[in-house]
Task: structure prediction
Amino acid sequence: MKKIFLIGLFALLAMQGCKKDETLIDGKRPEERIQEGLEKYASELTGSVNGWKGYIYTSNIGGGYSFYLNFNKSNRVTMLSDLDIAAAETGMESSYQIKQVMVPTLIFDTYSYLHLLTDPNSDVLGGDEGAGFGSDFEFEIREQKGDTLKLVGKKRNTQFTLIKATAADKAFYTSDKYALLIDDVANYVAANPFLYIPDPKNNVNRVQVNVTPDIYTRMFTFTSLEAGVIKSTQVPFAFSTTGIIFSKPLEFGGLSFTSADWDTVSSKFMLNTSSGTKVEILSGTSAAIPLHEVMGTALISINMPGQLTFPGSGQTFVSAYTTFKNSVAAGFSTPTIVRDLNVSFNAVSKTMAISVNVVQNTTSVFPAVYTYNYTKTQNGEYRFSGLVSTGGGATAVLSRMRTFILNRIEAQTFTLDYYNDQANQRVLGKFSSKETPDFSLTGTLR
Amino acid sequence: MEKILIYFILLSTLLVSCKKEAALNVDLSKSNPITAVERPIDTWLNTNFLTPYNMEVLYKFDRFQAPIDKDLVPVLEDQVQPVMEAVRDIWIEPYLQTAGKAFLKPLVPKQIALVGSAQYNIDGSITLGTADAGRRINLFVVNDYDKTNLPNVVQMLHTIHHEFVHILHQNIPVPPDYEKISPEYVGGGWISFSNTAIAAKDLGFITRYSRMNKDEDFAEMASFLLVEGQDAFNAYANTSIATAEARLRQKELAVVDYYKVNYGIDFRALQERVRIAKETLTGKSTPFITNLTSGVYKGFTVQRSAAGQSAAFVTAFNTSIASVQTDFGIPINSVFDLDFTDIKTNRTDMILKLSGSTFAFWYNLKATIDVNTGAVKLALAPAGTTTAYANGTLIQPNIKPLLDYLTLNNFRADWIENVIPGSKNTLAGFMVTPGGQLGFYGTLKK
Result:
């Protein structure tokens, strides 16, 4: 009995072992399904006669960027980009592959405009050293919806959207219109630094609009003042065929803004909302919201990176700062320089800190931070008191700092304003003494 | 019996189960097909690397050839051929000509993977190359390569030579005595601020990175001797402190021995071929004046009677020695030295060393050298305290014509290949400016 049982068991095993039938998903072998997927996307990409529009939004710094791409059947892609005027005018050809790397994957495997955003060498396009803007050039093809391919970067999960271009799109990109648009918008926002829209809620207040087409900060921002509180909301944008397009809808005042059309004839922006409403962006002569209302919350500091002062600084300040720097340089046996002056505000603790970096032997950096409490009047006049020094370099240069700069900070009344540095197409912050208007400094706002 | 039966059944079950009648029916050509069309660069790489050496050059970015956690970029296609030409001419060819195919073919890495950017590491260093298991070399910063920029070419070739030396010592280890020469290895701590270039130099390391471990030290030494070259090495060793110089010279010999003993390679011949290849490819060589001021040479031996010395120089010399003969009856030798006082301290203090009979006659000279133009101006400096200087002072009025010749003329120091062909690296001369005619020349002391 036992024998029969054993024999029966092994017979069963033997039969099982011989079984050769396969269970196949969709009746296809894995390599066939892989090849099918690859061929499907390859024919999609190469099959679009007018090419593709691509939008990418970086994760480290920057904002949005658009591309116009043409894929051909021999694994070559030609692209244009809104990274700068030259890249929008002149196509660059490179290689691409569609490979199975877990899922169908589009890899741009030799250098092109797209890679500028990932280049870890900050001398190439800027960006963070070792990380670039935070972008990708190897993308998983996640899904296809009509004419849109949704791609996700393998390394940084960057969203890259490819949309089949129309004949009109192709005409736009292959003419000089793409470059002109980028140039026009840059010139427009430089000439009109104080853009606004009427508040959608009451049409009375002004909502400040900031469009910064610069590649490092390509953002669209709304800033409003509601019951004394600054509210700011922003979204990355890229250039499109009609103007600028936001990475995602920007919710504000009950409306959902998706893009802005650029009117080439009258040179102005018309915002589009998801409900179809259009809102014109207007240009004012002064900031919709005074700088002192924003400083310490939405913006925190006026910066002078490096050793030089910025355009628009008053002569009294420039001389004082120069004398201070020279005095420090002469005052130490080790080579010492002062750089990176920064005036920062904190509206919560009501403090203002004026700081510099003291650099010895070009490598050792000692920050010197001088913090004051401030009081501010309704119309933005500041008074400072109660100095606290912190940082490794603070004590060493305190007496000189006092003589040339701090004494005046403690004795006088100060105001904040915007300064339109038209030559360099940027708006700076300006911090000036009311009693000695020439004692004023300008710097980039952050 | 029962057991035997059971074992028999078990055995037959296994046999039946394992039986595979057909080949695996997977068509791998469908699994991830390569669809790229061969382009001129692919043909060129096949002709120059794949066919002769079985080396595959991977220039299209493949994430699996490089660290997966780093932001890297692919190569610019136009950079591939220039970089690989340099690799072929300055690395493969010199080895091939010196050691032959039988040596090179088994050892060359089977793959060279090119990456556009450097690899940025967490500790703040950047990686320019890596070698994996003697089979693959990764070359970074390909996009920055510029063959007309000598330091740039040196950096790239240093990397590949360095990595190849790793392959050599992975096959035949570096003798254990090597690491006793400079035992101060610090591993990953080489990147520390305390390991300055000077600190490493004082311990007899050729670069900061050499302090990593003995293998890196050896690879750095060999690649420095080959790519930066013997002149650069001499300058480095000559300007090191005495203990460090001794260590560097010992390591230099160890490298030369290692090549001879283990691979039968004449390192000096290899070095010379690399130098010529480097100069041919870039069309540039290190200017004489750079060598002079960096400490390659210890001085000059000048022979008055040598062909090509200018009439003015010979006259000044002859007048001087005739005068000494008349007044003191001492025949001054027609060969004199113009040496650096102490090459480790500076490359401007020199001693003019005349001799005659059993006496030495010395004069201190101060050279003012312009490294950009090669202009040299000599001036008499205060005499030293030894007898040789006292002797010099005694006959100084008689020697005045020669001293005047040396100190009143403006010179430009350079090779004199146009006067004496083939004399580069052995002879150098002082051209009188303006005019540029050769004034006098001498043999370089190394």
Summary: Chain A touches chain B through 45 residues (CB under 8 Å). The radius of gyration of chain A is 29 Å. The mean pLDDT of chain A is 90.
